[in-house]
Structures are given as C-alpha cells and as structure tokens.
Amino acid sequence: MLLGGHALMAHVIEKARELGVYTIVTDYVPNAPAKRLADESYDISTTDVDALVRLAKELGVDGVFTGYADSNLVPCCEICSRLGMPFYATLKQLDQTMHKNHFKELCKKHGIKVVDSIDAEMYLHHKEQIPYPVIVKPADSYASKGISVCFNPDDLKACMEKALHVSACKEIVIEKYIKADDIYCYFTVQNGIVSLSAMADRALNEEQPGYAPQPVGYFFPSKYLNLYERNVHDKLQHMISDLGLLNGSFFMQGFVQDDEILFFEMGLRLSGGAGYLQIRHQNQIDQVEMHIRYALTGVFGNWSIEAYDKPDFAKPACVVVILLKNGRISRIEGLEKIRRQKEVFHILQMRQEGETINAKGTLNQVFARIYLCAEHRVNLRNAVRLIGTELKVLDENGCSMILNLFDPDQI
C-alpha cells in the first residue's frame, strides 16, 4: 500500500510491478496521477491513520510505504507500527530531521556547520536590528511552501504569517538570506553505514523577487565532493549513528561559503527531485527498489552500498528543471524531439495541457524534470541548448510560460 498519489509515485509503482508486487494507492485526491497507474486505489486521505490501518487489514497488504512528501511520513510510520510492518524511520528520527531547528541542533552537536537561525527575541521584539534580507520559513514544511524572502522590517509580519499558515507545528525559522553556491547531497544508509550516493551543484532561478529561489539545474558530480569528504563525512556518520538510523535514504541541502559547507535542511525520504534516477543510471544502485524490498521484508537490499556507491560519477550529468510562470497551459511542443536525444534518459512531466499554474515560489511550478547524462561535457551542454530551443509551453495567448533556464556553460 502506497500513501500519496503524487506523479513521482509512478517510479515506485513501475519498480514494484517489475518485482511482481501488486500496488494500492491511497490519497484523498480523486484520480491523482499515481492512482491511474496503480493496480488498485482508494480516495482515503494519507493522514487518516485509523481508516488506512483498517483498509490494510481488509486487503491483506504485506507492506506500506510512502515517499516525496514530509506530511505522509508520520502517518506511514504510525500505520506500519500498528500493523507490525517495517518502516525505515522512527517518529523520533522523523522529528529530529523534518523540523528545521531540531535538524540544526543535531548537526551542531556533531560539529556539522549549519546556516544559523535568527533568535526569536530579535524578530519578535527588535525586527529593525535584523540583517536584511532574510528568508522566512515554516519550521516543518517542504517543497518551498510558505517561504518568503523579506527585504525590510515592514514586510516581516506578513512573511511570518505566511509561514505560520503553512506550518503544522506553528513555528517559523528566519535565516540570513545567503547568496552562495548551492549544493544537494543524496545519501543511502545500509546497516548503519552512511554513504554519499550523489552530490549536485544547483543553479537557481531568481526571477521572482520575494519568493524562495527555485532550482532550474542540478549538475553531477559536484565540484565540492572533496570538500564534503574532507570536512563533513566522518561527522555525518557519527550523527547518523547517534540518530540510530540503520537503513534508508535521505538528502541534505546546503551552501558553500568561505570553503565551508553550511547545511540548512534534511529530508529523511526519497527526494522530490528524484535524484535516485541519476544514481541508478550511473552506479546501478536503485534506492526505490531498496525501499520496496525493505517495506516488504525488512531487508534494505539488494546492493552493497560500500561496493557500488561512487558519487564521483564517471560521466557528466545534469537535471534540467522547467519552471513555469502562472497561467493556463494551452499547448506543449518539443518534448518528443527532446526525448529522442541520446543524452536524455528520463523525462518526468508534472504538468499537462489544460492545467493552471498558480504556485509562485514553490516546487508546484515545475512543469518537468529532464534527466541527462553524456560522454563529455560539450555533449551535455549541446543537449541542454536543444531543450532551450525546442521546448515550448504556451499559455492561452500564445506566450511562453517558461521561466529562464540556466546557462549551459555553467555545466
């Protein structure tokens, strides 16, 4: 049983089908994308734990899993606990990693640098003393929901209210807005050993002032791999051991500033950017299959991460993220020609013709993610240029909805 009908769940359903596993998707959204692919589906909210426990017992399910959305992790953990089924994380582990301040405290305990939060006393009573601009976030959100960039004291109250509206725990985090190189790390944990599976440098789109910058490109392998190995990895192993995490996957986001990696967020789940596709393409390790096997058997296999994980990918790779302006998608052109390029090995299309985009400053602006790998950087750059030339997403007035792509020469 899979909690959540998000389009990304297609990767779990497809892999489960390869393994001969029958899939049942639950989600309160009728006709959610994953429901159209699953063997069976139900319009039950992923947060209705009692109803889902009853359903699992009625259907005789052998395992329960979720991915991609923080909001589904706690219900899935509770359901598995009540059914006596494996789940890779505990409620305590989820709290320590999902809550941004708890995550930072955990990092600091083990000497891992983080982006410092501004003290509540300052933003509640001395907001004029804050070093603007700052970024204001819910303490427990994901996918950039409820996040604002605040440039002056007059706007701080509205930014805080926006963040609190999204936060389930009704807490916010305020940080100095940092403009520095952005990194994204993907990890696999097997039998208590943490392994860096991939590391990407990210290009961000900053066309929307006041909103959180959104990623438009991921470049593999990161130029900061050696810095991570030198300054972070051993400390992270101690942190994961202290957390008690034995098996699973997670990601961490950060900046590189003054030759230091500063982390600000962790997700104890499969990433919404589907970085596991690049990992599988380069190193054959399949995090999705490992999670499916664990949910059904309690064994996180079938690969030895110590033998297969090589974050210094043999071939240059990238992910092109297509962000859209608000509006209604009237016509899409060029995807099939892009799909035929040998450097393109996967396209994850999130939005279709007829859909309306009304999600400024969040990952709900993503039209598609295009995954590429090439023999040489020049081939990768040319493939990205072709995407910029051929892809058209037009609104009802025939105007392009695509926000600026990154410069291919950044690769």
What does this protein structure show overall?
It is a single chain. The protein is globular and about 55 Å long. It starts with a strand and ends in a 17-residue tail after the last strand. With 411 residues, the protein is α+β, with helices and mostly antiparallel strands. Helix 2 (49-59) crosses helix 3 (73-83) and helix 4 packs across helix 5 (100-109). Strand 1 (2-3), helix 1 (9-18) and strand 2 form a beta-alpha-beta unit. The mean pLDDT is 95. 32% of the residues lie in helices and 25% in strands. The strands form five sheets. Strands 12-11-8-9-10-13-18-16 form an eight-stranded antiparallel sheet, sandwiched between helices. Strands 3-2-1-4 form a four-stranded parallel sheet. The protein has a three-stranded antiparallel sheet with strand order 6-5-7, covered by helices on one side.
